[in-house]
Amino acid sequence: MPQLNGVAERRNRTLLDMVRSMMNFTELFPSFSGYALETTAKLLNIAPSKSVPQTPYEIWHGMPASYKYLKVWGSPAYVKRLMGDKLDSRSNLCRFIGYLKETAGYYFYDPTEQKIFVSKNAVFIEKDFPSDSRHDEVLIDESSGEPQHDSTTSFEPTVHTDGAPILRYLRDPPKGVRPVGCKWVYKRMLGADGEVTAFKTRLVAKGYT
């Protein structure tokens, strides 16, 4: 059995972890994972590292990489496309999914036309992209008894598969055990047109406790 390359395995694991994070961040279709992988590899090639004095990009091209053109992967952007006879132009709300390899430009996905195309000119909406292109997160501190965000969402009690509701009891922690603090995170899922499509919630533990 040939000796395994630990460095390569670690880099592959880093690539896949970043791809999973990017896909979860944007919630684009799994078919876009290839574009996410190419973007991840590009970012790692230009990212500084403590272990080596130069980035792979600097070693290959002989000059430092520019970071001015970098955008948040999966972010929405208005892209002007020439339609028909090229006299009628309009801007579509698309998703940024990658960089061109040899020339300047970006790959975009148009959810309305369900097409992938290349363009250099786009207006990125990264300010509306705080944590997820389709998420609007609200942190709720359980220590506060007052609501901190207006919401019309109603939450039903969790039910087992047999139909019996889950019963919860408040108990004092065992002696010497410090409870972990937590916060509720509520998310609004937005479609490509900016309309709310769903709601999600999760309980997040405070690591510093």
TrEMBL record:
UniProt-recorded Gene Ontology molecular function terms: nucleic acid binding
Signal sequence, renumbered to the chain: none
Pfam families: SH3_retrovirus
InterPro entries linked to this entry: Integrase_cat-core, Retrotran_Ty1/copia-like, RNaseH-like_sf, RNaseH_sf, SH3_retrovirus
Ranges for region Disordered: 140-160
Gene Ontology biological process terms from the UniProt entry: DNA integration
Source taxon at top rank: Eukaryota
Domain Integrase catalytic, first and last residues per copy: 1-64
SUPFAM superfamilies given in the database record: Ribonuclease H-like (SSF53098)
Name this protein carries in UniProt: Integrase catalytic domain-containing protein
Natural source organism: Sesamum latifolium
